[in-house]
Amino acid sequence: MIGETLGAYRVERELGRGGMGAVYAAAHTLLGRRAAIKVLLAELSKNEQIVQRFFNEARAASAIKHPSIVEIYDFGWADDGRAYIVMELMDGEPLASRLRRVGRLPVATALHLGRQIANALAAAHATGIVHRDLKPDNVFLVPDVEVAGGERVKLLDFGIAKLTGGLGGDIARTRTGTVMGTPTYMSPEQCEGSREVDHRTDLYALGCMVFEMVSGRPPFHDGGAGAIIAAHIMTPPPALRAVAPDAPVEVEALVARLLAKAPAERVASAAELAAELGRLGAGSLPGSGPGPAAGTSGPPAAGAAPPAARATPTTLAGAAHEVTPALAAPHRSRARLAVGITAGPAVVAALALGAAIVLGEERIHRPRVDAGAVDAGAPDAADLDPRLAPARAALAARRWHDARDLAEDVLADEPDHAEARAVVAAAERGLRADRALDALAAAIAARDWAEVREAHAEVVVHTDPGDPVRIEADALLDRARPDALADARAGVAADVAAGRCDLARRRAADARVAWGEDAAPLAALAATCGR
User: Fold this and answer.
1) Number of other CB atoms surrounding residue 262 within 10 Å
2) Orientation of helix 418-445 relative to helix 449-461, angle to 10°
3) Which residue blocks in 216-313 are alpha helix, DSSP H?
């Protein structure tokens, strides 16, 4: 791909690679304009539904004319048939990386960023576009001296956006019962897979983000994806001041409105929300006010010494960018490569491609486990590389992304470093297990029992007996069993009533294979067909 020309852009170098493809830095052959190009894998580019959702991102972002929306330059197919999108290449860091680095933001900064996000959403909603996957990973902070506080928000990743009116003419519609988004930031109606998801789902997600920016944690964060989805639907959100006592009462009240379970009880529009956030933040420059000390949450100060770590360009999650390392960070901040597949044993992230269940890749808090050897074949304890101590600690805390990134820093200098390779392998295994668990929870919520069995099998492949993820997956499967059997019985009964005897027998046999002796009575029910 390096040296090839896609449209009017010549590919210069690879920025990152994920399960769906790669991202490259490129330059316009005549203008010299720098750009980032997302390129789908060749086999995925042959899937019409996947390509539709991939190009959905380009259509949605290009339809919105706003300085806080990532700019799309072009999209199409390469000569070899691979689909691609050309977009602006940005310098800065994702809001998610900022929050991981500093914990929480000053209230004034949170309000300032929230207002910018709301204004971008207002522009999207006015164009008939609902984002549906708003989260800190999809908000990028870029230096801009024209903006108060010196940073501009850029809203990314419209891969699972809902297009209405003329914009959505040839985009495959999401069927009722489909769950799309990232569990931590999904509205109750989105969690339920409702077709009636409108612009107010984005306002709920922004409420979750403001809560997190001010308090250092999202309103619902404990457990796996299934538990978080259930909490959004049924559990009242915590009061902001119960988590962040220094938050102003008016900010707490606004966040509570945004997190209302009923859409009609939320702020009516993104424009209204932007105005309210502006009013609450009036007179305060970003970086001042309650919360962490001013200056701890923004970009490195002008004139500061450049960081020792190199910037690491990545991303399939939204517009590609050069990630600027934080001076205070123990290792470089890195935007994650989004990994996507159609409904299978993994979590579909920012490219969100037409699956029955589509969830954003995110960090779900798992129980802490004791540190041990990073993998079979890892060096003896006496020979462990001290540079990998933070990576080993991240493995022990099940922070798979951090462990992998830290180990890859070492591999960048020593590609054959055995311990670093072992850390990466262990982290990848943990990531696959977590994604499979999240897919399992989502499949249960969607009552997709074939996917439930497949996702559970994937968890088993990537975990050992006694692993917390394996234990949680087994518990989820046991709790789902009665519902699965009830659905199977209803299906067999419907087939019998309609005289579809062969189908009834096949359905009963499939249930027996999937659920064992508990499904045995279905064979007798199927046998009554035609009598």
Assistant:
1) 9
2) 160
3) 225-234, 240-243, 249-258, 270-281
Q: Which residues contact 469 (CB under 8 A, 6 or more apart)?
A: 366, 433, 434, 437, 459, 463
CB 292 within 8 A of CB 102: yes
| 3-class SS of residue 288 | coil
State the Cα–Cα distance between residues 40 and 21, nearest whole angstrom: 4
Q: Encode pLDDT of 238-290 as tens digits.
A: 999 999 999 999 999 999 999 999 999 999 999 999 999 999 987 554 433 44
Ordered DSSP codes for 17-75: E-SSEEEEEEEETTT--EEEEEEE-HHHHT-HHHHHHHHHHHHHHHH---TTBPPEEEE
Q: What Cα–Cα distance (Å) separates residue 163 from each residue in 105, 181, 205?
A: 33, 15, 18
Q: Are 519 and 485 in contact (CB under 8 A)?
A: yes
Q: Over the stretch 122-172, which tens digit does the pLDDT of each residue have?
A: 998 988 888 888 999 889 999 988 888 889 999 887 755 554 544 444 333
Contact (Cβ atoms closer than 8 angstroms) between residue 121 and residue 207: no
335 Cα distance to chain centroid: 11
Catalytic residue among 74, 133, 483, 487: 133
Query: Phi and psi at residue 57, in whole multiples of 5°?
Result: -60, -45
Task: Please tell me the distance from the alpha carbon of residue 13 to that of residue 3, in angstroms, as a whole number.
Answer: 8
- Give pTM, 2 decimals: 0.56
Exposure on the CB side of residue 101, measured as CA atoms within 13 A: 25
Quick check: is 133 catalytic? yes
CA 216 vs CA 247, 344, 356, 383, 446: distances in Å:
12, 32, 32, 37, 31
